[in-house]
Amino acid sequence: MRFLHTADWHIGRRLHGFDLREEQQFAFQQIEQIALQEKVDGIIVAGDLYDRSLPSEESVATLNQMLRQLNLQDKLPLYVISGNHDSATRLGTGQEWYTTTQFYLHTDLQQALTPIELTDTQIFLVPYFEPFAARQLFKDDSLHNLQSTMHLLITKMKQQFVPHKKHILVAHFFVSGSTKSDSETALTIGGLAPISADLLQDFDYVALGHLHNEAALHLPNARYSGSPVKFSLSEAEQQKGVWIVDTDPLQLTFKPLKMLHDVHQLIGDFETLLSESFYHNLNLQDFFGITLTDKQPIPNVLARLREIYPNIISLERSQNYLMPTKQITDAQIRQRDPLTLLTQVYQDATDSNLTEQQRKWAIKALKQAQNEVK
């Protein structure tokens, strides 16, 4: 059989305040087109469909439209699990009748023990779970980490293996030896830790979610699909895409996705960055993280850079930056009021003045701090 493996859509995600709806819709349209062109037998989505457990109405509408398009319009079976960013309860609402259209959505750990039975394949869908869910399901208080829980869970799955069928595991966790970027939430909270890759060896293919880089793990039988959109500056150099998985024999083909607005890291001095000869080949509507190499402060630096690069997601100074210094004695510092000092520190660090709104927030925070001291 042939499947398309994707994950980590994170519908509703923002990039340093910038809305990513257009980027996510652009990526979805490519995923749909690839699925149709490759004539896949189904689409696997390995968790984190939403970016937060309480998605906005707009995010819910967006995801519903995407799933309807794939399942009801394109008639593609869907094999989906909830991830650590999803609310299993909210995402799973209505799943009782989803299977009538071959939309298999697992959000409860117990569902992982019942495989989806296809002609020549069994698919085990393991949603993201906390240790207490495993202790309740198996009535075993000794289950306090992911390794021991997954060992027990996979043992029970293997008891249901049908000989001569292919066995696919869909899961959302961190596998030992994988690499991650700063946009992923570590699964170490609540006792969850990376699991050993050895636990996965009896499956013909393991479709993983959680890490946003498709190159994070390359086992013979296991892959992360990575996210379809870049969600942080640390993902700037990653190639986004999806896996086409042929099961007999196992063959994995990575299909790259184009970015509507890409993410770039720019490093240079202020004069160079504002030079047309430097930026003339760039798409200036892309997202930029900028590191300035100038040693001295530059007035209104962010505003001036945004005249060329409107979508700046971060602005940093290189290590050789010389912070402005002023010869102020301790006695002079004690004589100044807190708001004046805060304003000066902000100016020194950012080369700009507090906005009126920032000033109001600062006054409120300082008053609250003074009341707490009293």
TrEMBL record:
The keyword Nuclease applies. Residues 261-348 form the Nuclease SbcCD subunit D C-terminal domain. InterPro entries: Calcineurin-like_PHP, DNA_Repair-Maintenance_Comp, Metallo-depent_PP-like, Mre11_N, SbcD, SbcD_C. Residues 1-213 form the Calcineurin-like phosphoesterase domain. CDD domains: MPP_Mre11_N. Keywords: DNA recombination, DNA replication, Endonuclease, Exonuclease, Hydrolase, Nuclease. It holds the Pfam family SbcD_C. PANTHER family: COMPONENT OF ATP-DEPENDENT DSDNA EXONUCLEASE (PTHR30337), NUCLEASE SBCCD SUBUNIT D (PTHR30337:SF0). Belongs to the SbcD family. SbcCD cleaves DNA hairpin structures. These structures can inhibit DNA replication and are intermediates in certain DNA recombination reactions. The complex acts as a 3'->5' double strand exonuclease that can open hairpins. It also has a 5' single-strand endonuclease activity. Heterodimer of SbcC and SbcD. This is Nuclease SbcCD subunit D. It comes from Bombilactobacillus thymidiniphilus. The gene is sbcD.
